Amino acid sequence: MMHVSADVREDTTRPRADKISVKDLDFYYGDFQALTGITVGIKERGVTAFIGPSGCGKSTFLRCFNRMNDLIPGTKVDGTILVDGEDIYAPGVDPVDLRRRVGMIFQQPNPFPMSIYDNVAFGPRLHGVTKKPELDEIVERSLERANLWKEVKEILPRGGLTLSGGQQQRLCIARVLAVEPDIMLMDEPCSAIDPTSVQKIEDLMDELKDRITIIIVTHNMQQAARVSDETAFFLQEKTGQPAEMVEFGRTAEIFTSPKDRRTEDYITGRFG
Amino acid sequence: MADEPMTTSTPSESKSTLKLMSKSMYAKEAALRNLFLLCATAAVAGVALIFLFVGVRGWPIIQDPGLGAFLFGKVWSSSTDQFGILPLVTGTLVITIGALLLGAPLAVGTAVFLSEIASPRVRSVVRPAVELLAGVPSVVYGFFGLIILRPIIANLTGGLGFGPLTAAIILAVMIVPTIATLTEDALGSVVPGIREASYAMGATTWQTIYKVLLPAASVGIIDAIILGMGRAVGETMAVVMVAGNAPQFFQGLGEPVSTLTSQIVIDMSYASGTHRTALFGMAVILFLISMGLVALVRVISNRKKEG
Amino acid sequence: MNKRTANRLALSVLWLCAGTTVAVLGAVIIYVFVNGIGQLSPEFIFTWPHGVNAEGGIWPTIVSTLYVTGLAMLIVTPIGVLAAVFLAEYAVQGRLVRIIRFAADSLASVPSIIMGLFGLALFVETMHIGFSMISAALALSFLMLPIVMRTTEEAIRAVPKYIRWGSYGLGASKWQTVSRIVIPAAMPRILTGLILATGRAVGETAVVIFTMGQAINLPISPLDSGRPMTVHLYMLAMEGINLPAAYGTALLLMIMILFFNLTARWLLRRNRRMQG
């Protein structure tokens, strides 16, 4: 599974191990099976993109990694998902604790209706940090890592909702970074914001991936090609049938020489 | 970024294990959930307690004078120990129908106006007025009816002006907010687009309202009118103050009548024995009527969802 | 009649409907104000009634009204709000929830006179609390419960889903999400609902007339009886004695209710502005 190529993105000397291993994953909404037989290894310290037409289950799959699907009654997961070698669906595992380690960014920027400072401090406070100097430091560091510090350091007490859409999304990223996750899930993070802000978020992903494993769901194939190291293509062939992962590989290969005909059709715009 | 303190090791080396669910945390979450559930069942407890405590006191009416004599007895007279509620039921019915005849068109008209015609400016005056109308205490309506409306009605019908007409007019005003608010909601939830479609075909505003919107919102409007009816049946203080409170059959718009609710208020302070039992029995019947109307609304709305 | 004429005619009728509604409200308010304003004085508000015709002020009835309203809100607020939290955040569609909702709807439609008889039977007589502030407040809180539940549930449901996801995504538990994110976000609307319910409680008559007693008394302990403003107005009006005092009482009642309504509106508007 180790791809050693002369890719320009190859910026680390260490070989990259699998951060998340998924084996034979089936997913059900009640009686309806949404995903079938997915087996994939997501590499650490990189960006993996999930692409495919709408309704092909890529967001559903993404939400399996932090067990957000647990919040929807009637959902069921078969198969295993290992994070750092541990089964996150093993009996007794606390999904709440898992979500501290697997952060998530949503399509709609969703700052809490409270100040910028409190937004970022929310996670650390949940997990027991109460001392003001410590919180100050975490807030500053997280906002800096999200490339937002310079813009907001004078207005920390202002409401998070007063920021622009792109700034709100970076605030949400800072909020996630404040709890120091080692995986970050991004569910179409750029589809509700303006193009200039998209650039900033893509740059940010590039900076963050040195330390954090990022998985991004996107509709935008150019974006997938720009930001990701690996790409997975999902497809639901017929309505009412479960979706599957058609192809997974290095982004460069998926976009230049896909092995599967269906991937090629999608990438060249023949459907979707 | 490089000069930042590195607090985390590289992920592949981090061997922090997944925490198992902490028992105390989950016990607390479950306890809270159960507390909230308990609060929510307070509503069920309320209904059960009302049935129990009002029911127990009204129950003996079935033995003496018997359900038939109670429901269909034509005479209500405490001095002769006759407690037939037919005249009171008739009084309630006449006043409620009157209130609906006057109030429902007014309320639906106001709602259509608010939802389809009024400019935002006009709406910002009319809608708060409707809401405030709902906030006026019923005793103030009764007072208004007694002092202002009653003499006017007395001129029209002769007599003192106590009676079904005065009561129906006051009740009509009181049910306007209920019906108007719910009707406006119903009009607001009409599928978007069909308004525009109707206008695009050259229909006038009125044709759009009459032929497209009202039929589309009809179920919601019927629900609104039923709930307005419930309000009218159960209204007490305003009716007591203007109906005249004579437990006799309807004899004319200006002749005093009494209703189930008003008779309870008038008699309760001195009633005892069978008389008191009869009053609680009337309360049970009122409760069954109001619950029946709520159930009716549910059935109608559910059928609409299925259809 | 061509369709233009029909249209114009129909629209005028609709204008007339709305106009009538506003005019009726205006008439009630103006009438109560014009007749009551001369009566309002510190003496009327802060002294006791005396004499056969209830001359003098209405102070004990004001205190009784505020006392019972405050007590009822104190009882109903925690129960109603937490019940709404359950329905909006925890409940899974099922039989139990259907029963709870039907019960709440039924409770909302119970005529207030029945709630009065219920309070009389349970609190005053069976539990031997007697005519008192607490009996009246308990009966009143059953009447307010569905109102508080409904407005609070609507307020909670109006908080966007994705804000909750943000919190869960950070590893917050359900209760942490509800208590730190959802309830604070819904707070302005919850408060609005509570204030409107308070206004409703102030104007209630039929519930309190058989649970609080009718004798004039200045309540100190929750076990004391009293006579609220609404019952006072009812008795003055029905007995036809001392109409000026009736007008004054009606005006004070209207002022209190207007105050609650306007406060609720102001709160809602301020909140809307702040959220942009």
Outline of chain B: flat
Gyration radius of chain B, rounded: 28 Å
CATH superfamily of the domain at 18-107 and 183-267 in chain A: P-loop containing nucleotide triphosphate hydrolases
Number of helices of chain B: 12
Helix amount of chain B: over 70%
**CATH topology category name of chain B:** MetI-like fold
**Could you say which structural class the secondary elements and strand pairing of chain A correspond to?**
alpha/beta
Name of the CATH first level of the domain at 18-107 and 183-267 in chain A: Alpha Beta
Span from first to last CA of chain B? 62 Å
Number of strands of chain A: 10
What does this structure look like?
The complex is a heterotrimer of chains A (272), B (307) and C (276). Chain A is an alpha/beta fold and 272 residues long. Chain A is built from 10 helices and 10 strands. Chain A has a domain at 18-107 and 183-267: P-loop containing nucleotide triphosphate hydrolases (Rossmann fold), CATH 3.40.50.300. In chain A, 33% of the residues lie in helices and 25% in strands. Chain A has a 6-stranded mixed beta sheet with strand order 6-7-8-3-9-10, with helices on both faces. In chain A, strands 2-1-4-5 form a 4-stranded antiparallel beta sheet, covered by helices on one side. Chain A starts with 17 loop residues before the first strand and ends in a 5-residue tail after the last helix. Residues 1-11 of chain A have low confidence and may be disordered. Chain B has one domain (68-306): MetI-like (MetI-like fold), CATH 1.10.3720.10. Chain B has helices at 23-58, 67-72, 86-117, 120-135, 138-157, 164-188, 194-200, 205-216, 218-234, 237-242, 260-268, 274-306, and strands spanning 76-77, 82-83. In chain B, helix 6 (164-188) runs antiparallel to helix 9. Mean pLDDT of chain B is 89; it is low at 1-15. In chain C, a hairpin with a 4-residue loop joins strand 1 (49-50) and strand 2 (55-56). In chain C, helix 8 (174-202) runs antiparallel to helix 11. The radius of gyration of chain C is 23 Å and the shape is globular. Chains in contact: A-B, A-C, B-C. Chains B and C meet through helix 1, helix 3, helix 4, helix 5 and helix 6 of B and helix 1, helix 3, helix 4, helix 5 and helix 6 of C.
Task: Describe how the helices and strands are arranged.
The complex is a heterotrimer of chains A (272), B (307) and C (276).
Chain A: E1 18-29, E2 32-43, E3 47-51, H1 58-64, E4 75-83, E5 86-87, H2 95-101, E6 102-105, H3 116-126, H4 132-145, H5 149-152, H6 165-177, E7 183-187, H7 195-208, E8 213-217, H8 221-227, E9 230-235, E10 244-250, H9 251-256, H10 261-267
Parallel strand pairs in A: 3-8, 3-9, 6-7, 7-8
Antiparallel strand pairs in A: 1-2, 1-4, 4-5, 9-10
Chain B: H1 23-58, H2 67-72, E1 76-77, E2 82-83, H3 86-117, H4 120-135, H5 138-157, H6 164-188, H7 194-200, H8 205-216, H9 218-234, H10 237-242, H11 260-268, H12 274-306
Antiparallel strand pairs in B: 1-2
Helix pairs in contact in B: 1-12, 3-6, 3-9, 4-6, 5-6, 6-9, 7-8, 9-12, 11-12
Chain C: H1 3-36, H2 42-46, E1 49-50, E2 55-56, H3 59-90, H4 95-109, H5 112-126, H6 133-157, H7 161-169, H8 174-202, H9 206-209, H10 229-239, H11 243-274
Antiparallel strand pairs in C: 1-2
